[in-house]
Write a structure and sequence with these properties.
- Keywords: Metal-binding, Nucleus, Repeat, Zinc, Zinc-finger.
- Its main location: nucleus.
- With about 450 residues, the protein is an alpha+beta fold.
- It is built from 21 helices and nine strands.
- The protein is globular and about 75 Å long.
- It binds a DNA duplex (25 and 25 nucleotides) through helix 19, helix 21, strand 8 and strand 9.
Length: about 450
DNA sequence: CGGACGAAACGACCCACAAATCGTG
DNA sequence: CTCACGATTTGTGGGTCGTTTCGTC
C-alpha cells in the first residue's frame, strides 16, 4: 500500500477497492472494474487522504479531507473539539460510473484540489455506464449510484448523537453506513451514553444485546458449527446464518445478495466482511453499555470475545485453512483495526470488569468443547467451495490483486487441477514416470 | 502449586512441473 | 514500439517433521 496506484504504479491513487484491497487511480479503477461483470460489482470508495492505505469512511468538511476510521479517530476521536468537526459519510459505488455520477456521489470530491488534475482523471469524461443501476452485493435495496443521488451522495452526519442515529441502518442504508454506524463515528471519546439502546441497529428491531447475548446468542460457535455443509451457509435459505444476521445486525447485508453461482468467490468475501463487521457492530454497543473494554481486550480470557470475532471470520471466509486470522485479516475484511489495537473508539477504556467470571468461564468451556469440531466444518466448506469458485487470471481477464485477503485462495485453477492429479511420494511430487505411492486418481497404493 | 510427560494442534517444508512473469535481442 | 524467445519465478497439494500448546498426573 503506498502512494501510487497499485495497478499502474505511477498515478496517484484516489479510490479504494475493498474487494481487491487495492488503491487505484480513477483510470485504473475504470479499467480494472470494467473488465468483466464480476469486477464491476466491486464496491469502491474514496481512499483515505491521510494514511493512503485504507478506505475512507467519512469526509471532514472542515478540513476538506476524506478519512478512514482510524485516521478519523486519531484526528477527531480523542479531541474534545471533535464536536465542532462536521463530517459526512462517504458512500461506495460500483460499476463504472461517469464523472457526472461520481460528482453527484461525491460532490466534495471535485471541489478537492488534489484529485482530478491528471490525465488519468480526465478520462472520466469518456466513461460510460454499463450498469448505471448496478447493484452492489451489499445494500439491501441496492447500493447504487442512483440511490445515493437521493441523498445528494452523502449521508450527512452531525456530531449530535441523537440526530438520525439510525439513519444508516434503515433499509436504504449504504454499505458504509452498515459498516460504520454514525454514532460510532461521531461519538465523543470517553463518553458512554447509557441512554443509548443496547441494540446495534435501533431501527431494525434487533433483539437487545446484553452480556449474555454476547456469549450465548452471538457466539459464532452456536451458529457456524452447526452447519452440516457449506451449502447451508451460502444457500438460499441461509438458515443458520440467519441467526448470525439477526444477532449481528447485518441481516440486510446478505439477504438481498443476488449473486450468481459463478460469483461465489466474491460471495465468500462478502460473508467474511459481513460477519466480521457485524460482530464489530454488535460488540460496540455492548461495550458502550458497560462492558469493560479491558475485560474484552486485555485479559487472558478476553479471548472469549476476541475469538468470537476470529471465529466469525475464519468460519465464514472459507479461505483461512488454519482457522485463525491475523490482524491483517481484520484490516482487509473491513473490520476496524481498532479491535486489535485494544482501544476501540466506541469503547472508552475503563477499569470495571462487568463480566461475571462464571459467565466467562462457561463461555470458555463452551469454546473449548467446540473447538475441535470447528476446523472440520471450516475445512469441509473450503474443500467444496473454492474448487468451484476459482478462476484463473486468464479466465477472469485479470489477476486478482487481493490475494492477501484470503491467504489460501487458489489463484490458478489450472495449477490446482494439475496438482490434484499429480502423483506423490509421501506427499511430495514425483517425476512423471517414477514410482509413486499415492495416485490421486485411483487412490490406491501403487507399490 | 509447579514440574514432567504425553497427546494434540499447528505451521513450515519438500517435491515436480506447467503457467506466469521477466529480460533481452 | 512491437514481437519473439529463452530464462526465471510462481504456485499448486499431501505427507512429514519440528515446535508449541494443552491436559493430566
Amino acid at each position: 500500500m503506498g502512494y501510487n496506484c497499485d495497478f499502474c504504479g505511477h498515478q496517484r491513487p484516489v479510490v479504494y477497492c475493498r474487494s481487491d484491497a487495492a488503491c487505484l487511480c480513477l483510470s485504473c479503477d475504470r479499467n480494472v472494474h470494467s473488465a468483466n461483470a464480476l469486477s464491476r460489482r466491486h464496491s469502491r470508495t474514496l481512499l483515505c487522504e491521510r494514511c493512503n492505505s485504507q478506505p475512507a469512511l467519512v469526509r471532514c468538511t472542515e478540513e476538506r479531507v476524506s478519512l478512514c476510521e482510524n485516521c478519523d479517530w486519531i484526528g477527531h476521536g480523542t479531541s474534545t473539539s471533535n464536536l465542532t468537526y462536521k463530517r459526512q459519510t462517504i458512500n461506495c459505488y460500483s460499476g463504472c460510473p461517469s464523472s457526472a455520477e461520481l460528482s453527484s456521489l461525491w460532490p466534495f470530491f471535485w471541489q478537492s484540489p488534489s484529485p482530478g488534475e491528471s490525465t488519468c482523471e480526465k478520462e472520466l469524461g469518456l466513461m460510460s455506464i454499463t450498469e448505471n443501476i448496478e447493484t452492489t452485493s451489499w445494500g439491501p435495496t441496492g447500493n447504487t449510484v442512483s440511490q445515493n443521488k437521493n441523498s445528494a451522495g452523502v449521508a450527512e452526519v452531525n456530531n449530535d448523537n441523537n440526530a438520525d442515529m439510525g439513519s444508516g441502518w434503515d433499509g436504504s442504508s449504504s454499505i458504509l453506513e452498515l459498516r460504520s454506524p454514525p454514532q460510532a463515528l461521531d461519538q465523543p471519546a470517553g463518553v458512554t451514553d447509557t441512554s443509548l439502546p443496547k441494540v446495534s441497529c435501533p431501527q431494525t428491531k434487533r433483539p437487545s444485546l446484553c452480556e449474555d447475548d454476547l456469549y450465548d446468542d452471538f457466539n459464532m460457535d452456536e451458529i457456524d458449527l452447526n452447519l452440516d455443509n457449506y451449502e447451508e451457509l451460502f444457500g438460499v435459505a441461509l438458515n443458520h446464518s440467519e441467526e448470525l444476521f439477526e444477532n449481528g445486525g447485518i441481516d440486510s447485508l446478505f439477504r438481498t445478495n443476488d449473486l450468481s453461482a459463478a460469483d461465489s468467490d466474491c460471495r465468500g468475501a462478502v460473508a467474511a466482511e459481513g460477519s466480521s463487521v457485524g460482530l464489530v457492530n454488535a460488540i460496540q454497543p455492548a461495550c458502550s453499555n458497560g462492558a469493560s473494554a479491558d475485560s474484552v481486550m486485555s485479559n487472558k480470557t478476553d479471548s472469549v470475545l476476541c475469538f468470537t470475532g476470529r471465529q466469525a471470520h475464519s468460519s465464514l471466509s472459507f479461505s483461512g485453512l488454519t482457522g485463525e486470522s491475523s490482524g491483517a485479516d481484520y484490516q482487509d475484511c473491513g473490520a476496524s483495526s481498532m479491535l486489535l489495537m485494544g482501544e476501540p473508539p466506541w469503547c472508552p477504556p475503563c477499569t470495571e470488569n462487568s463480566f461475571q467470571s462464571s459467565t466467562r468461564s462457561n463461555a470458555v468451556m463452551r469454546y473449548k468443547e467446540k473447538k475441535k469440531t470447528r476446523n472440520l466444518v471450516t475445512i469441509h466448506a473450503i474443500e467444496g467451495f473454492h474448487v468451484t469458485a476459482v478462476l484463473s487470471s486468464k479466465e477472469c481477464g485479470f489477476a486478482f490483486p487481493s490475494l492477501h485477503m484470503f491467504e489460501k485462495r487458489v489463484r490458478y485453477a489450472s495449477r490446482k487441477a494439475r496438482a490434484d492429479v499429480r502423483k506423490r511420494v509421501k506427499g511430495r511430487f514425483v517425476k512423471a514416470g517414477d514410482a509413486y505411492d499415492y495416485d490421486p486418481l485411483n487412490q490406491t497404493q501403487s507399490f
